[in-house]
Amino acid sequence: MSMQVRDLIKAVRGCKTQQKIREVITRESALIRNSFRKEDKINRPRNIYKLIYIHMLGFPSEFGQLECLKLIASPSYIGKRIGYLGLSILVKENQEVLFMSTNIIRNDLSSEDRYIVGLALAALGNIGSSEMLRDLAPEIEKLMESESSYLKKKATLVAIRTIRLVPESVDRFIGKVRTLIGEKNHGVVLTGLQLVLSIVKTEPETIVKFRKLVPGLVRMLKSLINSGYSSEYDFRGTADPFLQYNILRLLRYLGEGSKKSSKLMADILTQVGTSGGITKNVEIAILYEAVLTILSIESDSKLRVTAINTLSRFLSGRHNNSKYVALNTLLKAVNTEPKSLKRHRKVIVECLKDQDISIRRRALDLVFGIMDKQNVESLTQELLDCLPKAENEFRYDITAKICTAIEKFPPNDKWQIDTLIKVLTIGGQYIRDDVSSMMTSVIGRNPDLQYYTLKKLFNILLNDRYRNQTFLQVSSWVIGEYGDILMQKSEKDGELITTTQALDLFQILLESSRTTDGTKYYILTALIKFSTRIEGHDELIKKIIKPYREHVNVELQQRACEFFLLFDYSEIRDPILDRMPVFVEKEIELEIEEEISENNNKGINYNLQENTHTIQNQINNIQNIQNIPNVQNTQNTEMNELLMLNTDTKKTQTQNKQDSLNFLKEIFNGSSSSNTNNMNNMNNNVNNNMNNNGGQDLGLDLGLGLGLGLGLGMNNQSQRQNQNQNKMQMQKQQNQNQTINQNKNQNQNQRQVQNQSQNKSQNQNQNQNQNQSKVQNQPIIVYEKNGMKIEMNFKVGNIRGAPAVMSIIKTTNSSPLLISNYLLQVAVPKTLKAQLSQPSGQNIPPNGNGSINQQLQIIKMVNQKTQLAILLRINYVINGQKIVENKEVSNIPIIF
Amino acid sequence: MIKFILIVNKLGQTRLAQYYTTGLSINKRVALENEITRRCLSRKDKECSFLEFRDLKVIYRRYASLFFLVGVDEEENELGILEFIHCLVETLDKYFENVCELDLMFNIDKAYMILDEMALNGNIIETNKKNIIAPLHIIDQVSKKLK
After folding, report:
1. Where is the AP complex mu/sigma subunit domain (chain B) (predicted)?
2. Which stretch, A416-420, A610-614, A733-737, has highest mean pLDDT?
């Protein structure tokens, strides 16, 4: 025999563990199931009651669904009551069983007993499915005209559900609205208003019709406000607030887009907006709804200002709830009422210091919303002030907003840099990743401010070297990149900043246990850059880097080894470590373009524009090359990249010029995005996350393709000698990208290899790093024509476990004529991978007075003996004549 | 529109749950209730009574050991719902005479009835306590007679 409901609840309450509760419920469920099987009519209501409780606890109760149907079909009211309760709770999700109840409900709807009808309506209103409601719509319609207001309001709510689930039935109910709203019973009027709202939302065309209701609604609202105390619906001195705010909401829908209706409600809205107090929740609720209506309808500016002022009053009040809704509403009004909003800046800023995080979040959004070029300085300062006191989670939001402000509304570059440094020092560990790239780009394009920034960063570092890691990373990158400027200018200034001081600082930071490995990567890179920026400190830098060649961290170890080796290759060290090209972001670029039309003389802007043109010309030239016969299909990946670019260009050429310009811009952005990728790579390294993601791949491809494409284009440019300077700059940048990317690629390949051979000990790795055995030092002459001679020597070794051939390509010119626009391209079989460094120059002076050096690395990709063969494509201009030649080098005595 | 009304005790145990939306399996429902309750209970007194959760707003208010939580959509007047919660509590109080957790547990059918008199289909129908309780009194009288 199953328990009484009370006993079950007591039993569950007595359980100490979830397991015990489960046991009790399982046992009881089994008993209930048994009782159902025996068709135990007497205990059925009790069992369903228990199931409702069991369901609430989160246990299965499906087996009772059909019993609910039996209960609602029973004649007794008590049985029906539990049955309908079970129906709306247990059967809710089971459409089939629900549909089976349709006929029983239909019977109950026409019952004599209004409470039974009420039960059926309540169930329909809560759970009625679209099929049921469609079937029962005539009954519902009839009940809406019932004499009892108890049934009327319930039927109206069922109608609302019907409209929601069966939108085409809306016409059936439109005609009922007027009588419902005209009723005296508040419940009926309230449901009537909600019915209009749901009709209006389903069929927006009906709004025009319902505008006729506006005067009546205004009258109703007026009488509610003026009635004072009414015992029936009094809520702490306010007459039926629910009715009031529903009227206001309906007025909002009716007033939107209609000046006439808006005018009709203006008076009452002013009255509501100015008369109500703001101490009680009820009053605020109505005021809040009124403000929403004022802001949505076509009200005049005076009324709107009143509305904003009211919200501002909420903000300075004590209730957190009203602050919350006010901030939310103000956020919606940011775009429509910016002026009046800005007047309340003080109150909004004050909310940033609130104890409630939800309010602070809203306030932060709002502060950001009202930010513009005029107030950005003071508002950002406010945000910076609340940064140290905020919770960690919130700090991320604040720094993100500050950074966006810095990006979006900088009054000047100096402010931008100052604020960036401030954010970095105060909240560096809570900052999003791209801030470092923003910093570097700002510094890059402001040569005048570089020294200022450097000095500032350096002094902060000197005084407090254990700042957060992001700050350390950014400042070491900047100091490494522009170290020469710092040293030169500080000498002139008489400031006591010396290179040794900087190097000491870096050493201390490197040795500190509070510096993470991620930061150490940056410091190592800064050190190696220093070696090229300032002469005469190579030994000291070597000494600092040396111990890290054996560091536990593989990435640090690799960097140290590579950097250490770079000292031996001074001819490639300088270009590799050359100054990063100015980093141009998309938005900035657009702004600059606007500026250019007005002012063409600003150095960097001018360059940029020039560069864009250059790319266009060069890509056109690639098109020309495409037409030259005898272009061999090469297997080189780099060549493939070039071909890809060609097809792209072809497409572009068929479109109109504007399009092609856009396309070029995209390419240009692409190349700057490859810069970003480099930055990201650094960040990735910080996280020790070496994944090569898709976006990065794209960046690399573009970088490679463009680098080569531009190089090719150079050949046809001789007639435009006067522009060569710019182009060379551009090419240098691109090539540098290329080099960096290639290095990156190489690193990644190496890493893969390394991963495969993880069992090798670290020492072994070390040896391999430095091991470059078997030197084959006899240079081979691969090309000799027109006085130009290309020699290659080969060195077999391995790079991180992968067999590789290193080669230095030397090009000389013994003819009496200048060779210009020299460009060499290399292709190797698919089993190999070739990487060509940038050439040491473009032009070779006549009579053997100079040469161009280039380094080639060929890495074996598969594990089989391969005969080395190389295909060269040589481009140059001699005597005004452009020459492109392909040359196969197969006589290399190397099998590896 | 109201999406759900929950009454939970301060341990986070659900004492009453009414959903006006469909499509929640038992497991999902239990997970949702746990998550919302956990968040509400962890909030401090000084914080506002609103909580944003997924696409809905939860308005909650604490009365002694019981938390009343109402999930609503974007359009609903948050302060109005607070008033509604208060009205619900007052009505329960009036019917049960100083309502407590046990009253709800042992008379869950009555609690549901009161709720159904006040709100249907996510809309508020009646806020007058007398009107709400009237049908319940009739039932009580009838069942007394039956006994």
Report:
1. 1-141
2. A416-420
Alpha-carbon distance values, A210 to A213, A215, A242, A251, A632 (Å): 5, 11, 21, 10, 77
Residues 52-81 of B with CB under 8 A from A: 52, 75, 77-80
Residue count of chain B = 147
Among residues A450, A447, A566, A553, which one has the least CA distance to residue A510?
A553
Those residues whose C-beta lies under 8 Å from the C-beta of residue A637, and which sit 6 or more positions away, are A833
- Judged by CB atoms closer than 8 Å, whether chains meet at B120 and A158 is answered as yes
Beta-carbon-side half-sphere exposure of residue A510 (alpha carbons within 13 Å): 24
Output the DSSP codes for A166-214: -GGGHHHHHTTHHHHHH-S-HHHHHHHHHHHHHHHHH-GGGHHHHGGGH
Chain A: residue whose CA lies nearest to B30: A58
Non-local (6+) Cβ contacts of A634 within 8 A are A640, A827, A871, A873
Q: Which residues contact B140 (CB under 8 A, 6 or more apart)?
A: none
Length of chain A: 896
Residues 97-126 in A contacting B (C-alpha not used; CB under 8 Å): 115, 118, 121-122, 125-126
Work out the angle at residue A190's Cα, subtended by the Cα atoms of residues A187 and A196, and round it to the nearest 5 degrees.
140
Entry pTM: 0.65
Contact A322 B116 (CB under 8 A): no
Neighbours of A581 (CB within 10 A): 18
Whole-number Å distance between alpha carbons of A659 and B56: 45
Query: Mind listing the pLDDT tens digit for each residue in A669-723?
Result: 444 444 444 444 444 443 433 333 333 333 333 333 333 323 333 333 333 444 4
- Residue A89 pLDDT exceeds 60: yes
Q: Which of A246, A255, A260 is nearest to A181 (CA)?
A: A246
3-state secondary structure of A93: coil
Please give the C-alpha separations between residue A655 and each of A209, A616, A652, A667, B79, in angstroms, as whole numbers.
52, 14, 5, 16, 58
CA A153 to each of CA A40, A522, A591, A821, B19: distance values in angstroms, whole numbers, following the listed order: 37, 71, 61, 88, 20
Given a contact cutoff of 8 angstroms between Cβ atoms, the answer to whether A785 and A884 are in contact is no
d(CA A469, CA A512): 12
Residues of chain B found within 8 Å of residue A158, distances taken between Cβ atoms: 120-121
Q: Is this prediction's ipTM beyond 0.95?
A: no
CA dist A389 and A849 (Å) reads 67
Nearest to A243, CA basis, from A256, A233, A231: A233
B126 vs A6, A85, A187: nearest CB: A187
Among residues A804, A799, A823, the alpha carbon closest in space to that of A738 is found at: A823
A207-215's contacts with Cβ under 8 Å and 24+ in sequence apart are: A207/A253, A207/A254, A207/A256, A207/A257, A209/A174, A210/A177, A210/A254, A211/A254, A211/A258, A211/A260, A211/A261, A213/A177, A213/A178, A213/A181, A213/A250, A213/A254, A214/A251, A214/A254, A214/A255, A214/A261, A214/A264, A214/A265, A215/A264
For chain A, give the percent of residues with pLDDT over 70.
76
Distance, CA of A595 to CA of A579 (rounded, Å): 26
Residue A388 phi/psi, 5-degree rounding, is: -65, -25
pLDDT of residue A656: 40
What the block records as the tokens of B106 is: 């042992």
Instruction: Return all residues near A442 (Cβ < 8 A) that are at least 6 apart.
Output: A413, A416, A417, A420
**How do residues A582-591 score in pLDDT, each as one tens digit?**
766 554 444 4
DSSP line for A424-463: HHHHGGG--THHHHHHHHHHHT-HHHHHHHHHHHHHHHHH
A374 contacts B64 by C-beta, under 8 angstroms: no
Residue type, A613: H
B83 touching A, CB under 8 A?
Answer: yes
